[in-house]
Write the structure tokens for this entry.
Amino acid sequence: MPRPLVDAIRGFFKGRETSEIVDPGPAAADGPDRVQVAACALLLEIAHADEEFSPVEQTRIEEALERHFGLDSAARTELMALAQAERGRAIDDFYLTRIINRHYDLGQKMLLAELMWSVVLADGEVAQHESFLVRKFANLLDLAPAYLSQARRRAAPEG
């Protein structure tokens, strides 16, 4: 990750107040860096839904960040740490999905849904909380159930 991008992500979090979480401000403040943090935070939320963040789930998220955001190892680690902190600060899921809704088109949202399902399916088990959370996020992202079903099929392991 280029150094200015890392600095921009860090700058986003410096001095944030809890009140800013409730009203994130105009869409212009939600730049691509903030969208990456929000998307990663949703993936982490899914991974933690069953109260266990397994190494295979972490690997799946890291692979997604590398493949879809073009991040190297250090940048992935930093983004995951920032997203984890954002997860802790967000009062509700609407805050994170709202950022994504402002910047992602339908195709990008479907890809995110596929990534969410790949995290859920990573450990070979689909916990009820995980499945519920993916459906909840899909609803907040305005994805129709048919799109979510397609995303799950694409995320399912072959064989």
Summary: DSSP finds nine helices and no strands in the chain. Confidence is low (pLDDT under 50) at residues 15-28. The chain has one domain: 3-155. The two ends are 35 Å apart (CA to CA).
